[in-house]
Amino acid sequence: MEDQVFIGRQPIMDAKQQIVGYELLFRHSGNAQTAVFEDDLKACSSVLVNTMGDMDVQWLLGDKLAFINVNEGMLMSEFLELMPPQRTVLEILRSVIAGEAIVERCKALQALGFKIALDNPQLSAHLEPLIPLANYIKIDSQLTTEAEAAKLFFKYSSPSVQLVIEKIETIEQFEAHREIGFRRFQGFYFAHPETLTAKVINPSFDSVLNLLNLVSQDSDNNAIESGFKRDAALSFKLLRYINSVGFGLSCEIQSINHALTILGRKQLYRWLTLLMVTAGENTTPPALMKTSITRGRLTELLGESYFDKHDRDNLFIVGVFSLLDAILKMPMENILEKIQLPETVTEALLTRGGIYGPFLALTEACEGADEKRILELSELLQFDAEKVNQSHISALAWAESLGI
C-alpha cells in the first residue's frame, strides 16, 4: 500500500448549513503527516485521473465545488487540467512561495475557470502576491480568537472574495462567526453535539419509528397501512416517492396498500430509514442529513464484496443511523431502546464492533480524512485505495442525486 493515496473529505457549508462544496484531502499512506508532496505527485495525479477524470459524468454534484489542496508541483503540473474547472477550487498551501511564475500560473488557471483559495495567508508572507487573485480565503478558527477572526474578516473582505472559517466544532462557534459576517463554514460541529439529553421525539419521528418497528416485526400490510394513515405527511411522502420518475411506473399509484405491494418490505425499510433522517427537516441542519445519507451509501458500497443483499441493507442502515444521536440530540442508547434493530446493527452503532463495525469506522475515517485510521481499516478489510476512493465518490454522487 506504499504508493496509494486515499481521499478524505470535509464539507463546506453556507450560513443556512447547506453543503456548497467539499474539501478533498489526499492522504498518502507512505508519508503520514505531509499529505501529498513531491514524490507523491504521481500517486496523487493517478487519483485525479482514475477517480475524478470523469468527474462531470461520475460526480453529479451539480453546483457543488471541490476544494483541492495543491503545492507548487501540483500547481505547475498539467494534471490539474483534468479537473472540471468550473467546479474546482485550488487551495494553495502555505508552503508555496508565490514568485512571478506562480502568480502567472494562477492567472492562467483562473482564465480557464478555476478558482483560487488561500489557506490562512496572514501566516505566510510568501502568499501575499496572490491575495489580489484569491476567490476564497480560509481562516482557521483554532489559530485565531474570535476578535482576531473579525479583524481578518474585515481585512480581507471584498466583493470578489468569499471568506471561509474552518475547524468549526460547536454550534456556538458557528453562531459567533456567522455574527462576525462569515458566510462559509467548514468543520464537523454538527456531528459532535455538545450535550445530549433525553429529549422528546417529535411526532413525525415517532410515526417513522412505529412503522420501522412494524416492518421489522413483519406485520401485515393492513397494520402498516393504518400506521401510514395516522400521519398524512408520511402518506403523502410515500405516494410522492412511489410515483417519482425513478420507478418508471406506467400508471399513478393512489392507494397506500398498492404502494406497499409494489415497494416490497426491503425497499420500504430502506426508505423509512432515510425518512428517519429527514423527518425533522425543520430543525436538522441540511449538511447533517446529507452527511448521514452519504454515510449510509458509503458503508453499503464498502461491504459489496463481503456481504449479500440483506447484509448490505443493514450496512446502509448502520451508516444512516450512525448520526441519529446528533440529529435527534439524544444519546444513541436511548434511541436504540425505541427501535428494534438486529443485534449486529446495534453493536456497530454503539461500539463500532461486530461484523459491520469496521465498515462504518472506515466510512467515518474517510469523512474526517483520518489518514492513520483509513490505512489501518483498509488493510484490515483488504481494500486498496482505488476501491475506497471509487466508493467514496459514488456515495457522494448518489446522496446528491436524491435531491434531499
Structural commentary:
This protein is α/β, with parallel strands linked by helices and about 400 residues long. The chain folds into 2 domains: about 5-185, EAL domain (TIM Barrel, Alpha-Beta Barrel), CATH 3.20.20.450; about 205-400, no CATH class. About 50% of the residues lie in helices and about 10% in strands. The protein contains 19 helices and 8 strands. The chain has helices at about 40-50, 55-60, 70-75, 100-110, 145-155, 170-180, 205-215, 220-230, 230-240, 255-265, 265-280, 285-300, 310-320, 325-330, 330-335, 345-350, 355-365, 370-380, 385-400, and strands at about 5-15, 20-30, 65-70, 90, 115-120, 135-140, 160-165, 185. The protein has an 8-stranded mixed barrel with strand order 1-2-3-4-5-6-7-8, surrounded by 7 helices. Strand 7 (about 160-165), helix 6 and strand 8 (about 185) form a beta-alpha-beta unit. Helix 9 (about 230-240) crosses helix 10 (about 255-265) and helix 11 packs parallel to helix 13 (about 310-320). The radius of gyration is 23 Å and the shape is elongated. The model is unreliable at about 30-40 and about 55-60 (pLDDT under 50).
Write the layout of secondary structure elements.
Elements: E1 5-14, E2 19-28, H1 41-52, H2 55-58, E3 65-70, H3 72-76, E4 88-92, H4 100-112, E5 115-119, E6 136-140, H5 146-156, E7 162-166, H6 171-180, E8 184-186, H7 203-216, H8 221-229, H9 232-242, H10 256-263, H11 265-278, H12 286-302, H13 309-321, H14 324-328, H15 332-337, H16 343-351, H17 357-367, H18 371-381, H19 385-401
Parallel strand pairs: 2-3, 3-4, 4-5, 5-6, 6-7, 7-8
Antiparallel strand pairs: 1-2, 1-8
